[in-house]
Structures
1.
Amino acid sequence: MRLTLFSALILLAACTAPRANLETGRVTPRGRFIVGADVRGNVPTETTGAMYDSLKAGVNEARDAATGESPKWTGEEGRQKLAKLVDTLVIYSLDPLGWGFDFRARYGFYDHLDLGVRYDSGVVAGDVRFQFLGAIDRGRRPNFFFNHGPRWYGSVGVQYSQQDFKVPLPVLEDLQELLGYEFTRKDVLVPLAFSYSLGPDELFGAITFGVAYNLGLVKYGFKEEKVAQLFQESLEQEGIVVPQDEKSVHAFGPFLNVKVGYKWIYAIASLSIYYQDYGSYDIFGVKTSRFSGLTFIPSFGVMGTF
């Protein structure tokens, strides 16, 4: 069962905030463009564990209870069934397991600054980066701030994105509809990157390492009339409180990427690892769940400069 589920999940496009770190410490030279396309994974340890436990609880059973094809839920047993299903729905929306496709473009609009836009499986993000270390103007002038030899670069950026979540996995899509689950998210990503140029001005590519911090502002809730269809008595009599809440999700960790090519076209491989504290979530007054864990984001792609 677990193998079948995992095989299906890895084929899904995970709709999440773009957090793959694909840039080097050198910003796009003034007046030039960079375009690229990548495939990236999103593999959170907390989500994979929650998926298996929750699916055992039986989405089909919940559907039958809502439609009257089986007895309505009641008492402690019914509340625990609901809690198991909701655990999975919440953690999956916070950090979905799957693959995504990333298309990006950058433009160097000033000596130390560039702008970028990314489209990642339905999520659009915009960012700005500032280069504080290394030569500028295609290596013709030293950096006004810091310099450490002709091959070292450093930059810091800020990226913003937002999304409305819809579960891409059919069985959980049914659950989202059954419970009237709504989820929105806004993310701010701050990467700090250092790179070593392979050849002058990254002629043959670069090796990049750094750290990144991501702040996610999430809002989630359920529709009372949908949840009430599952239970024999009213939600008040069953002791169920339907949550509507806002949370902050903090994530941070290291990344490494390698860019290899020549002059105009390059291949790039990247791995970002985040430790994420998803926070505590009220599960309908039945229990409080706290989620945390590691997320691995591998990425592979191509990019061109002109």
2.
Amino acid sequence: MMPNPIEYAKVGVFVDVANVYSNGGQKMRFDVLRQYAQMRGTIQRLNAYVSFDAERARTDRSYGDRVTSFHDVLRDIGFHTTVNEVKWYYDPDTDRRYGKANVDMIMAVDLILQARNLDLVILITGDGDFVKPMQAVRDMGCRVEVIAFDNVSQSLRKNADSFISGYLIPELIPTNRRETPWGTPGSTVRGVCYFHQPDENYGFMAFLDKLSPLTWITDPRNPDSPYKAAFFHDSTLPPEINPRTLPSRKVIFEFELVESDRGLGAEDIRVVGRSGEASYPRSRTRTGGTDPNEGWVSTLASDI
């Protein structure tokens, strides 16, 4: 039997935590991300780049405890955590104080240096500033896969070897309790409309049924595809969606799976993302009160 090349691929994961938090991934499960990376080969590097406001921690003990707990959980999962301290500045033109915790340079350097010993880089960010480092890594012979949620740089998507919305990866953003597995009737999943019949007012959603290295086989009719199909009627679409714009891989839907006379059906459909349609905001400048660590610890701790 020929060896599976995926089993021998050396994989590195690089997570831009601030960007993920600011663009739809506040509840991302790092344990699921690790499981996804393990499907792609042998993990060599797991890197998470986070910020820490030491000034705030001196006066806000709750904040300091949350951040410390979050970082500890990341390390327990196996992530090497690089912490960049927030620096505060005063803008005399606007009479405002603002904080910066720019991790781009650190992450870009690590990406280029570590890629020399990797076959596949999984880059979790939507930031267009990583286009050049990504191109350098690809020139070294390393494949680059981008995972992001909202406000994804189109240049980043186009220059990656592959892109997948984080919304589509099963339970990367939790949707179900453990007793209701993703992909079973009664569960909540996310997918895209891959087929629509306008004359008869129905279509089919495609959703990833399980974590798989074969995410590029997107047609549920292919027996090797990890995607499954769910039937829907146009009357169940959310009001902001014009059925004439379907099918489309740009709009990401969340819906409940039910048994129907056509197999699995989709009900209670709503829009959770519009892949590639939003312009990318620069999200590295933060003002007091924005905490990229809030909301992560409880999700991580309760689900591991």
